[in-house]
Structures are given as C-alpha cells and as structure tokens.
## 1
Amino acid sequence: MTASLDWRHEWLASLTWMATAFIVTLVASAAAVWLLARYTRWGRQFGRLAFPYFDLRRGRRPLLTVLLILALTIFAVRLQVLISYALNDIFTALGKMYAQDFWVSIVRFTVLAAIFVISSLISYLVSQRFIIHWRTWLTDHMITDWLSGHAYHRSQYVTEPVDNPDQRIQEDVQQFVEDSHYLSTGTVDAALRLVSFTAILWGLSGPIPVFGHEVPRAMVVLAYVYVLVASLIAFRIGRPLIRLEFLREGLSASFRYALIRLRDHSENIAFYGGEKMERAALASRFTAVIKNTWIIALRRLKLQGFNDSVTQVAQVFPYVIQAPRFFAGTLMLGDVTQTADAFGQVHNSLSFFRNSYDSFAAYQAGLDRLTALMDANHDSRRLPSPTVADHPGALVIEGLRVWRPDHEPLIDGLTLTMSPGEALLVKGASGSGKTTLLRSLASLWPHAHGTIRRPAGGRTQFLSQQPYLPMGSLRTALAYPEPPDRIADQLAREMLHAVQLGHLECRIDDEAYWSRILSPGEQQRLGFARILLNRPHLAFLDEATSAVDEGLEHALYRLIRERLPECMVVSVGHRSTLNAFHTHHLNLLGAGRWGMSAA
Ligand SMILES: Nc1ncnc2c1ncn2[C@@H]1O[C@H](COP(=O)(O)OP(=O)(O)OP(=O)(O)O)[C@@H](O)[C@H]1O
C-alpha cells in the first residue's frame, strides 16, 4: 500500500485538528476584531454597525450562527486537505501502476468529495440565513434611527448633510452585510488553508540552488515571495478604487434621484415643456456617472491584467520547480501533483487578500456612507429647538425667537396663550416667517428658541397647503397618520360627504396614486376630513384652503367650528374672509417685529 496518510486513524487526527483550529481561530478572530475596533477607523465603523446585532442581551442566535459558520469553514478546509492526500494516493498508484491501490483511493476520494459537496451546501444555506437575518435587522435599525427625532427631515439643516439616505438604507446595508460575511469567512478560510497547505508544501519541498547558495524549503519560500510581491504591486494599483467606488455610489444615486423627481413632477414639467432642460440636467448627471465608470474600468483593467498574469504564471510554477527532483527519482508523481495543488492553495489563500482588495475598497466606502448617515441622524437630533412640553388644554408660547439660517430675525419674543375654542390667524408678507413659525412650533426648525406648551402627540395636527397623501387606498390617506382600519366604513363615507368629496365614496378602498389623481382643492378637502376624523385639540392650518374658492373655504372652516368647537385653531392665510373664523390675529411685520390683536 502506498498511502500518503494513515487513513485508519486519520478521523481522530482530523477531529483534534479541527477542535484546535476552532479554538485558535475563535480567540484570534476575537482579538483581531477587538484590536481593529479599537485602533482603526473602519474597525470602529464596523463596530458601530455590527456590535448591536451581536449583543447577547438581544439574543444568542446571531453569535451561535457565526460559530456554526466558523465550524463549517474549518470542516471544509480539513476536507480539502484530506482530498489533497487522496489525490496524491491516486496519482502515486497510477505512477507505480498499482491498480488495487488506485481503486481504493478512488473510493476514498469519492466519499470525501461527497461529504465536501454536502457540507458546502449546508454552509451556503446557513450563511444565507445569517445574511438575510442580519440584513433585516440592520435595515430596521437604520430606518428607526432615520425616523427618530425627525432626523429624516432635520438632517437637511446639519453642517454636513448626507445625500441619498434612501440608497444608503437600501443598497449599502445589503452590501455591508454581504461583504462582512464574505470578507470575514474568506479571511478565516484563507488563513486556515494557508497554514494547512504550507505544512504540506513544507513536507514536499526540497532545497534549490540560487546564485550558488542553497535555499532550503525553496517551494515554500518561493510561493510566499511570489505572492507577497504580487500583493504589494496590486495594492498600489488598486488603491484609488476606494475613492472611485465611493464616488460611483453617490453619482448613480444622484442620477436616479433626478429621474425620480422628473417622474414625480411630470405634470408641471410637461406644462412648462421643460423636456429640454430636464434632458440637459439628466445628461450632465449621467455624464458624471459614465466618466467615473470609465476611470474605474481603466483602473480595474490594470488590476485585472496584473492579477490574471500572476494567476497564470502560478499554474506552471510548481511543476517547473519540482520537475528536476521528479526526474531524479526523489519524488513520486503524486507528490508532484500534490505540490501543485498545495502551491495553488497557498497561492489562492494569499491571493484572497490581494484579489479582495476591490471588495474591501467598496466595503470601506459603504462603511463611510452608512456611518455618515448615522452621524447626520445623530447631529440632527442634537440641533437646537424650542422647549416643547405637553399641555392638553392650551397653547402657551413664551419668549419665542425665530431666525433664518443667516441669523436674520423672523420673530422676536413672541408670547401668547390660547384656550380651547379660540382661533388665531397668522398674517404677514410673503417670506415674513409664517410657515417657519409653524415649523418651530412642531420642533422642526432648528433656528428657534423659547418655550412652547401644547397638546402632545396626535392631539396636535398640522395641515399644510398640499397635504401629504401616503401610498395606498383613499381610506389610508383619510386616516393618516393613524392606520386605515381605525376608521369605520360609515364614518369614512360620512366625512367624504361632509367635505364635499361624496363622489369618491365608492372608491374608498381603491389603491391609487391619489396625490396625482385628486386636484389640489380636493386634496385640501381631504386634509380637512382628516382633521375632522382625528379630532385634535389643536390644529395648525397653513394656507390649507388656498386652492378652494371662498364659498368652499367658508364651508370647511364652519365644519371645523361646528364639529370641533373646543379645538384651538392656528391658521396661516392671506384672505380677509378668514377673519370671521378667528378670535385673534397675529401680524408678522418683518425683521422680527410682530403685532397681536383681538378680532
Ligand atoms: N431651509 C431654509 N433655508 C434657508 N432659508 C429658509 C429655509 N426655509 C425658509 N427660509 C427662509 O425663511 C424665510 C421665511 O420663510 P417662510 O416660508 O416661513 O415664509 P412665509 O411667511 O410662510 O412665506 P409665504 O407667505 O410666501 O408662504 C424666507 O425668507 C425663506 O427664504
């Protein structure tokens, strides 16, 4: 028998090896993660995004899955080592013409290969489950962070606003999770293969004379020198890709955003006949995308050309080195083929780091984009805003100062108190700060200071000139921000009739793009129906009847006064017909001055 291993006892040796490898890898990985998170910027960024997911207080499943993936990776490496020996036996038996040994080795190989295929499939399934679970959690985490404290809106006011949060949440999260898995399991797999196959190569390696000196274990030395030099050159060629990848994501997202805006404002653009301008704007964004794509392509061309040449040379390199010893009879045929296999494995493992430079560049760019979004969310929550406290039965404003971002005052020291049933009409020239006053009262405007007490949560409602209509049915639009099932059929229909939208009664559950179908006046009437349904204690109406005629405006305000007599109303409007529905008037006079009068 010409077996290269003691196959009878190999299962015990393999088990011991796997157990040792598991413990060593676990300790080394934990130490590496800790060091990276402590001493590198991207390590810290990774920690911010990943550690909360693995927090044991949330559950043990994520960590246990990682351990399972690690165990499967180690198992796969060990199998590859055994397969390499099984192949050695096959070729050695062939070289020596031992038919029986050959068939025994074929059977051994078949069993090992079958186990390898099954374990690869299991490993793939476990990895996919892990990736999907992590991605679901992280997407939810990012959305929650973005929505909390009005960050999705107030982030426009921070010093460094971020572009395209939608792309960061949708694409970058997915990329981050997939790359984290790929790069970490890839690193473990490459490191273990490197150790295992270097040992094999070591055993098969002999001395080689170089410039009159004998280099011992030359195969190992040459493999390492070869790949390390290649890696260094590849790093130099690939380095600009980090910045270019970052740019690519940003430019593509900005092009996509311009297309979405075109779709969203199609009617206005069509009325203006603005296609030429739109085409030019789209073309200029797309040109930037393409220019960057070309720079990336040329950079990749260099990198790929270099990587391919390195890989091709590596195919024959071990045969050339071992051939003299084979012809001298010191090596079996199986040893030569196993050398080539081990060299390939060492080369591939080392090359993993070189070839994944590209992925790593994109990975770092993704980390930057995700953490920049989290920073912007955080900063926007820290932006100043007036102190708002709950007061269920009044609106009390004390010493409110509002100014523009350029520090021009809009409102200086506004103080007022409103009781249930009272109504205030805010007037003033365009740009005097009427809408900004409402933004300040809703804690959206960061350039304001003072104290506000008002009914909290859903007991205060803001209705703007163009009410927001969410995607979905008319009932969803009516009930917003409450869920649609909150309003009974009868009530919903009655409200539509009340605001003179009875013709939509039969379409109440139709899903449509309602903000495109309904006229601005109909949308404003729907906004009033929403107020009537939600019965707030305080309603802010910002030019909420600007698109309806005076008769309809009268009818809508009368409805509010009749059905919600206790509701405090603060309106912004220009028409004198509104005077009759308000008990107090606030005039914004510009440069921070204001005047208050009773109606
Ligand atoms: N995000 C912003 N950045 C910079 N300036 C802003 C911003 N939002 C509003 N402003 C400025 O603040 C001022 C007040 O704007 P606001 O929308 O409150 O006016 P308004 O009285 O409601 O006007 P109109 O009657 O035309 O609706 C304007 O000069 C406006 O340009």
## 2
Amino acid sequence: MTRKAILVTGGAGYIGSHACKALSLAGYLPVTLDDLSTGNEAFVRWGPLVLGDIHDVERVRATLVEHDVAAVMHFAASSIVGESATNPLLYFHNNLGGTLALLEGMRQAGCDNLVFSSTCAVYGDAPGGRPMSEDTPRNPVNTYGRAKLMCEEVIAEVASKQSLNPVMLRYFNACGADPDGEIGEFRQTETHLIPRAMMAIQGHIDDFQVFGEDFDTPDGTAIRDYIHVSDLARAHVQALERLIGGAKGRQAFNLGTGDGYSVREVLQTISEVSGHSLPAPAGARRPGDPPRLVADPHHARQELGFAPAHSDLQTIVSTAWSWHRHAHPRGAPASCLSAVPANDVLSKPTASPAAGPVLGVRS
Ligand SMILES: NC(=O)c1ccc[n+]([C@@H]2O[C@H](COP(=O)([O-])OP(=O)(O)OC[C@H]3O[C@@H](n4cnc5c(N)ncnc54)[C@H](O)[C@@H]3O)[C@@H](O)[C@H]2O)c1
Ligand SMILES: O=c1ccn([C@@H]2O[C@H](COP(=O)(O)OP(=O)(O)O[C@H]3O[C@H](CO)[C@H](O)[C@H](O)[C@H]3O)[C@@H](O)[C@H]2O)c(=O)[nH]1
C-alpha cells in the first residue's frame, strides 16, 4: 500500500529529523524540504530530500503536488533567541516571510493540513512563575517569540477565512536524542544548555557558564521544562492524525512535561550520567532569559493523547550523552553517523517500516 506523504519543512534539522523518523515508524512517507542552512543532509534518512527554500512558492507547490502530500509539518525556521535580538529582520524574513510563502504554496496545491512548530517563547515571562496554559497571555519578550506569534496569528486568520486546518504546537525545551542513536542534536552554532555542557565535558568549548545564579528560584538558576525530542516527534504524529481525522476545536497545544528543572539540576544529572565533573562557573544572566518556564500540558494529554515516554531527566541526559559521545559534536555528522551504534544506555532497537532509508535523495 502506498504510504501517505507528509511534507516536513526543516526535516534535516534536529526536531524535524526526529519527526521524520516518527512519521516513518507510523507508516507515513516524510518528504523533507530543507535548504540545509542549519540542518544536516545525513539526518534525512526516512524519505526523500527536496533541497530548497520555503520562500520558493513554486518549489513548495510542485513538491506538494508531485508527492500528493496529505499534510505539512512546518519546522523550517531560524531559532536562536540571541541572534533574533541582533538580526531581527532575519527572523521576520525567515520565520514570518517563510511561513507566508509556505501557506501560499499550500493554497496553490490545495493542501490544507498544517502542523506548525511554535514555541513557549510566544508567552514571554510566566506571570508569577506559574505553569503556562494555552490561555496564558502571549507577550513575547524577544524577536524570535514575536515572529512565531505573528506566524500563529497569520495561520489562525487564514484558517478562519480559507481552507486551512492548522494545529500549533508550542514546545518548551526540546532536548535529548533518538534512543536508537540514529540522529541527535548537531548545529554549527550551539547555544542550548545540554549540548553545550556536553561539548564542554568533551573539551570542544572552553567558555561554558551558568547564565545567572541570582534568579528567584530555589537554587538561583533558571528553571525550564525539558521535553525529549522523540516525545515531541510522536506528539506531531498524534496532532497530524487528529487533523487528518477531521477533528475541530483547539488549535494550539503546549508540549512540555509540566515539571521544571533548574540549570544546576540538569548539570548535576549530566555529571552523574557522564561520570565527568563539569566546571560551570556562574556568569551573568543571558538577556531575555525568564526565571521559570514550565508548561501546563493537560490539553495535549487529553486531546492529542500526548504521553511523554522519554522525558524524565535521566533518559534525556542519557540519550543526549550517548549521541554526543558517539557523534563528535564538532565533527561532520555525515562521516560519523555510520559509526553511531544504537544507544548503549537505552538499547532499544526499533523496527522501522522505512527499512532501507532513502539517503539524501534530491529532487
Ligand atoms: N529546539 C528547541 O528547543 C525549540 C523550541 C521551541 C520551538 N522550536 C522550533 O522548532 C523548529 C525546529 O527547531 P530545531 O531546533 O530543530 O532547529 P534546527 O535549526 O535544527 O532545524 C531547522 C531546519 O530548518 C531548515 N531551514 C531553516 N530555514 C529554512 C528555509 N528558509 N527553507 C528551508 N529550510 C530551512 C534548516 O536547514 C534546518 O534543517 C523551529 O521552527 C523552532 O523555532 C524549537
Ligand atoms: O551555555 C549555557 C546555555 C544555556 N544556559 C541556561 O540554560 C537554560 C536553558 O537554555 P537553552 O538555551 O537550552 O534553552 P532556552 O530556554 O533559552 O530556549 C528554549 O526556549 C526558547 C523560548 O524561550 C526557544 O523556544 C528556544 O528555541 C528553546 O531552545 C537557560 O536558563 C539558559 O540561560 C546556561 O546556563 N548556559
């Protein structure tokens, strides 16, 4: 039987590639559209790669038609909060402009189903540090969050007037790596806590710091809700199936665990799992970092059936550490991926219906 094709923009990136694997395991054919600006060709293992930019409306339209695509998962974006402060135009251009072009390509192709990558950054600071529900006021404090909020608003407006069925998934802190060790987190410019701490342990960076120990939190460091990337990926499939099944109702869901961990708690777990001590001097706060961001995830649980299976801190750190140990974070992933064994901490091979992945097929 022919598998339903799903267009995955940004499928060569960290979260997009895990979503491609989850789609393949669920019986879909993920078709990646990616310009490889921050992604890795070697991560495109479960379906074809269409090398291109989401701003290219004709490329989007033709890809949707050629593959008879049933829905789009839209991950392609620029997503470094600090960079959005120094280069706001890039964020409006790539994230908002790119989404407008994608929507136009979808309209021309008659493809109506959209799963959109949003972020907890649309909320800004949590009022009183309470868990954030989907109804928490959206007051982004950085350009990245503002551009994502604008995308959400455009998508909702178009959906109210034209044929578009969207679901917006607001992730909290994506982390961890594929438990089978096939893919993981690799960016040329890395800003995230867990990969940077591991790069510091491995000696690849020498400027690791804890950004602020004077927050109003129990140990003074900032608290985040860490959600395993494979749980996020699975939630995308659940959201997609809800869309394809024609469900109406809520358009936005938080994807987090509801539990918060401080930077120091995360670093402690990294030391325990890796067996390495980690010099982590306290530095200044990073501009725009709120003290505490934790999800109220109950709508996703109730309406999507979202049930994180890998998002306890130990599993997050174990899978990430296994990936980092085997795929040198400063090496070329294409050349080292073949050497990455199944995760030796959580050895749990999966049978994928995509046995014999199509590697780096370009159209
Ligand atoms: N990483 C997180 O913690 C997090 C949290 C919340 C939301 N998000 C969102 O999730 C999505 C994926 O993030 P990620 O961490 O996997 O980032 P990533 O940089 O690893 O992946 C982004 C992918 O999009 C591609 N891309 C970027 N611009 C493109 C364009 N114009 N045309 C085609 N391809 C393009 C890149 O090459 C890359 O493969 C983003 O939309 C991001 O805003 C991420
Ligand atoms: O070298 C580092 C890196 C990070 N941190 C701290 O660790 C925590 C987590 O930082 P990350 O950079 O890993 O994640 P953020 O919470 O800043 O960012 C996440 O939330 C953002 C919204 O606020 C965006 O959605 C972004 O894509 C997503 O990764 C923060 O308190 C940060 O200050 C450090 O102390 N040292």
